[in-house]
Amino acid sequence: MATLEPLDAGDLAGLRPYVVDLTGGELSGDGAFKTTPADVDAIFDVHLPGFLATAQRHPAPLVIWAHGGLVDELSGLQIARNQVGWWLRNGAYPLHFVWEGGLLDALQQAVGPGGARDLWDHTTDPLVESAVRPLGRLAWAAMKNSSSVASQPGGGAPYVAERLRDFCAARPGAITLHAVGHSAGSIFQAHFLEAARELGVPPFTSLQLLAPAIRVDAFEQLVLPRIPDYVEALTVFTMRRELERDDTCLGVYRKSLLYLVSRALESARETPVLGLEDSMVADAALSRLFDHPAGVGSAEIVWSRSPAGAPARSRSNATSHGGFDNDVDTMTSVATRIMPGSPVEPFPAAAGPARDSQEQYAEGPAREPRRTALCVGINDYPPPNRLEGCVADAEAWAQVLSGRLGFEVVRLTDREATFDGILGRLKELVADARAGDVLAVTYAGHGTEVPDLDGDETGGTNGNRDEAMCPVDFAAGRFLVSTTCEQ
């Protein structure tokens, strides 16, 4: 597992010409790295002019980078440190916005500790989505608000845009402008580009989004109308559906972060997200935008993994959501699009570690895969709701699973099968699982429908209602539905 190298005082000093650090949307006055208006002034009055004085490429590209939302300040600085030298050697001046994500800590708190899981999709992933949703939605909303506030009047990004505007006016034709956003960095860039346009910054030659986590409707409101008049060329690098579903997130979720965003972190379930193939295919405006042969037109998708022999500008072999910004092919393609017509030094394979979200959670010692089952059966409901045979069904399932199938079985029957008892056991089974384990859940008891409280049931035979299981104490209004963990 790759690790991020620590930063010392020399590293931080060396980053000052290339980093703008933001906290709460404003220029950062605390933390490991501080950025003052004078630091921004120095970038445009001293450091960028100094770079241009010896630049071999004219005009020289200015690359504005925004990292993802699972990245904290220190990691954002380390990403900048890992990229700056490579950009400079290729003849581009990098400018990194380092902004607080804050999302990772909230998601870790929601799911609790644990190693990577490889569990049954329809048992564990919905549980993780429900467990993450209450805290995750708040953290995701706060992170998006931070990315928006940063580009509003009084934020740190407009000050950068104003200095950039003045620099371009004083040195017409000296630089070309390029923006790159990874994951939630796409949200940051959407707001920054709009602020830059309104402040009179010249058009951007390219916008490149890596595994973008921006909502489709936000993209179509903020970015789509600016192509190609203000953003001359757009490229989206993202994974095919199969790779998104083979990815893992937080060590427990068997899909990429984009699926978690779509299904749990946004306000409505199944929110279309730009980086998901399903969302692109289903949206008419996106289909029109990208409906042309590769390399033709103002917008292009580069799917990972790229076929052998793909052009140097259209390669990606990232296999995880967090892996795009250190994938050699992706990063080299990004640079090739920014600097067409001349050789580009490939992105160093060791320049940056894999920053997949699951790598924040180390797995425990290796062990043999386990099979664990929870079998629930309830006969003894309060009158007049008593049933017959449900406990026997649970016992029959337990015997089959524990016999030839080799499962460790936990039984909950009758008075043990309360709302808290069932939910608590489910969480324990998920928390104890590791890669290669299998989890099975059986239930025999009353079922019902309850009003849909989160808007995810918009069709089907049950209308705007959720299906629910009835614990033995359901009379107190305690039902097990997909949104249980929010109640």
Describe the structure.
The protein has 487 residues and is of the alpha/beta class. It has helices at residues 9-15, 37-54, 73-89, 103-111, 121-149, 156-170, 185-198, 216-222, 241-246, 257-265, 277-282, 284-290, 328-338, 390-402, 419-432; strands spanning 19-23, 26-27, 60-66, 93-99, 175-182, 206-210, 234-239, 299-304, 371-377, 408-413, 438-444, 447-451, 465-469. 37% of the residues lie in helices and 16% in strands. The strands form 3 sheets. Strands 2-1-4-3-5-6-7-8 form an 8-stranded mixed beta sheet, sandwiched between helices. The protein has a 3-stranded parallel beta sheet with strand order 10-9-11, sandwiched between helices. Helix 3 (73-89) links the parallel strand 3 and strand 4. Residues 113-122 and 351-366 have low confidence and may be disordered.
